[in-house]
Structures are given as C-alpha cells and as structure tokens.
Amino acid sequence: MNWEEYGLRISVPEDSLSASETVEVSVLALVGGHFKFPDNTRLVSAVYAISTSPLLKSLRIEMQHCIDLSDPSLSKYLKFAVAPVHTASLPYQFSLIEGGEFPVYQRYGSIERSKFCQLAIVGIEEEENGGGSNEERNGQEDGDSGDEGKGQREGQGAGGQEGEPGGVGRSDREEEGNGLKEPVDCTEDSELSTSQSKTIVPTCSTGITEATVYAGQVFYQRPDKMRFAASTELNALHQYIEKKYSHPEFDQSITFKLKSPKGCIELAFDDEQQREPITGWKIRPHVMPCQIKEHEILGFGGISTTIPPSCLVSIYAENSPDTVPNLSYSVPLKGVQDPMEIIINRSLRDLSDAAYSVNIKDGPSLGSQNDIKKHFNDLKRFLSSSEAMFRDIANSCKEVQIINSSQYNELFDGMIHHSLSKRVELFIGNITLLIEYCPDQISEFLSKLKEQEHVALSAIADKIAASSDR
C-alpha cells in the first residue's frame, strides 16, 4: 500500500494473512493538532493514525521525515513516537518507543507495529551529558486498540473533520476509491498542564535542527498576487497547502535549510539589482521585512495555526507604452544555507486578461497598506472587549455571506474553549483573506460595522475606508 503522495508506505508480512483473507486499513494523515511531544524533541514528520481490521500480527510502516541524513551520525537522534488513538483528555501525549530504522541518505524511516496508534517521527534537538532516553517498549505504550478499521476498505483513507472531538478515525462522510484521503488538521482545544519540574543539565546540539529540510512554494492566488508559503519538507504538508488555497497557480517549489537555529527565511526585494528590465512594473511586499521565521513554520498545523505561514506580494503594471511586456523579477532568499532565489514571472497579458492591469499611482502604497493593517488591529482590540458586539457583527456578516456558516460555527462552537481575542483574531483573518480575493467586499463589511451605531466602530470603519481609497 503506497501513499507516497502523502509520505507513507505500508506493507503486510506474508505470514499475517491467508490467500482468502482481506484486510481493511484505516489511515488518516494529520498535519497538526493538539499534540504534545517529549521535551527536547521536534516533530519531523506528519502524524498518521493507522488501524486495521482484522487485527494483524504486524505492519511494516515507512514514513517520510524532513531530516537530511547525509551525516550518518544524525540517524540515532530520530525516534518513533506514539499516542493512543483514543484519549480521555487532550492533548494527545506522545511517548518515544524503541525500534525503527532510519537509513542514511534516505528520507523515510521504518518500523513494525501491531497496535492501533497515532504514529510520528521526532528528532532529538539537544544531547544531555550522561542523560538517557525516555523510551517505552513497543506494544506497551498505547493500550487502546479500538476498532477504527471497520467500514474502511483496503487503501481507503479515513475522512476526518477539522475540530471533531477525538480527532481520529471519525468522519461525517465516507468516500469510495483507492488512496489515502487529503490531510486534515486535528485541532481541538483543552487546558494544557504546564506544571513540570525540570532539572537543568549541560547540553549540546545534536545537529537535527540544522539538518531540518524546509519547503517553499511560490504560487499566484490571482494574477497580481504572488504568495510564498513555507513548511517542513513533507509530502503530506504540501498536499495540504494545495488544498487550503482556492485555485492557485503554482510556480516554483524549492527546498532549503536555514543558516541558524531559530532563524528565518527572508525575501529580499531590490529594484536596482535586477538582471532584466522592469520598466513600468512595481513589486510591493505587504509586510517588510518580508520574512518567515522558523517557529512560524514549525507552528503550522498547531492548535490555532491551520494555514502555512506565507508572504504576500502585490504586482502592479503601469498602463503605458513604455512598460516592458514581460516581467522577470529575481528575489534572493536570505537566511538559507545555500544561495538561491525565486523569480516572479508575469506578463501584461496575465494582468490585462484578468482585468488587473492598473496604473501604479492607482495601486495602494506600502504606507496605506500598513495603515489598513493598523486599523484592523484596532478593530481586533475593540471587538475583543465585547462578546455580545462580536457575536452581533459575526451574525451580520454571516447573513450577507461575508463569512459562511462553517466559519461562524467554528467561532462560536468549535472554539468554545478559546479566548475571545483568539476567536476575534480568526474572524479578522477570515475577513482580510476575503478582501484579498474580493476587494469589493470591504465596503459591505464596513457597512456592517457602521450598522452597530457605535462611535468607535464607525471611526475605525472610516479609517479603513480612507486607507483603502489611497
């Protein structure tokens, strides 16, 4: 059973089945969720929830990881970790287990398993002088065998629904056909206990952090909007990125390693250093410096981060006979171990065919975009002070389809244990994303703010409108 598209391969030993038997396999690829891994480790794979029916003696499971093992000594710092399929309370607590192989120069690790579980690969980041590993024996770490495989045919992936209690092996839809279904975000809120006693001991880096391989994806969410998204270099995460954005035009894919731990990748824009003429074109990153930090990449798929971190760039072409017909704009990448760059390739036809060719003077300036961001932050702070007002505005937005029922339900049902400020942050994120795709919707949204007849809301709405018109 080969699901390399999602970074997973499963094989069944010959002596596990007779020629007349059929095995049902349930597999769910989880790009993130309410997971807790042992201290001093980082997740370097997707999390897979795997079960079979009937229960087999063992499965050979091969999983993709994102560690460059060209240095053979690093393989000893990779470990498999498991958590029960069901748990009485969140988070899903993962424990290291013995066994498994991590061949040098390969990006897959393998292990034999006979228990239903959630399975992941983690890397040990620091080595304690004289310390031992906190491993549990295979077969003793996850006592819940469950019956997740029932109703799922061989090669069928469990659907899963974002935010569903339990998070694994549950679905409100079952699709027929072969192959593991799209990765999901297994996110659910609960209280985390942080009271742990720690003993400080001398440590040194294992090299796992420096050997982590990341992936960058360039795509155009519309002809004049380029986005650069980053994640750990795993097939399951790339599939998730493709499904998270609506009808993207995918361009370059790159892999990179960061120069330093806790570093960042930065897109460097410099009109003066271009090899090709750019007359009549302007490239405007929405945030400066235009960078993605390592902790943001590693946080993708966490409890509240369901989309990969990215940088958004607007592209403007002047309606002038002097404008060069084709743009080839190089963007060097800073903070990476090997020198590399991405190229923004656009043509006047790309923009004009989609009615996005505008005069540069008509495009929003970087200053006005910063003003809009500031005013939305003001709105976020104001709405975080009143649950009733926030609910009224969300209701109004749902009525005119500025947000849909699913987004509304997530705010007031799916995130019931989250703070008001966290829910407001998600709401504003949904609004700003909508405005990126449908700029005309900003006036509809601002009118809903003014309907509240609150002087502060009206003032914020006026400021957003004024900045948008510049």
Automatic annotation (TrEMBL):
Stretches for region Disordered: 127-198
What highest taxon heads this organism's lineage?
Eukaryota
UniProt feature, compositional bias: Basic and acidic residues = 170-184
The biased composition feature labelled Gly residues covers 154-169
Species of origin reads Amphimedon queenslandica
Q: Could you identify this protein by its name?
A: ZU5 domain-containing protein
